[in-house]
Amino acid sequence: MINADFHTHSSFSTDSEASQESMIEQAIAVGLKTYCFTDHMDYVFPEDEGFNAFLFDPGEYFAKLTELRKKYRGQIDIRIGVELGLRDEPDIRDEVQKLCRNLTDNYPFDFVIGSTHVIDHFDPYNRDRWNGRSPEDIVRMYFESVLYSVCHYDCFHVYGHLDYILRYLPEGVTIDMTKFDSLIDQILTELIARGKGIEVNTSRLARGGVLNPSPKILARYRELGGTLLTIGSDAHKPYRIAGAFAEAETVIRQLGYTQYTTFRKGKPSFRKF
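^ that's the sequence the OP posted. Answer follows.
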């Protein structure tokens, strides 16, 4: 049984209004033993996407979560993490790398997710920005951005929702993912060589869709020798916590995995299903 959720968001993330207490109380209610906050820190987020900057005050973040860790001690083990938006655009990538490194060097995060949320200065969540572009080209651009980040950022422990771009394909569009097998293999090989893991993100599965990444990618990661696999609901509201964990566990076990990973103070440990 999966009893640790290692990808969740609260009101420290621009796209969540959930109080930290409400998230913790729900985590306890659904039987989790360990709960990790991974609020968004996306430096240099495109202002024209219509969002406020995905930034928070790390000092305030640690003060609040440390207080709650003490308050709920004995009920649930709270870990303090962050989800970093990694970027590869030539005009900003050096700045973003420096900002991410400075954050993780100066704050004792238990766990850091590296994610690609923005490509070529646009957020694929905004489907209007897909107009006039080839979906296949955008998907390739996304995976190339992920590969760059895997090779140039050392500030994260696992890569989040590795095929995230597929969440936002325009309606009716299908992509032949076999065209990206070689590129995905490069990503997985680099992650493994650098001691990094990948995340099983259950957000889409809980909404009637599929896992991110796909079972095919999860199987390939294991085949290549990967062992670091965290599980996260990507919850932005309490009721989403641990969403579809039972279904995800069934899929993961069928792929041959017998354990998953949690992190404390940046160090991995393994739990049997």
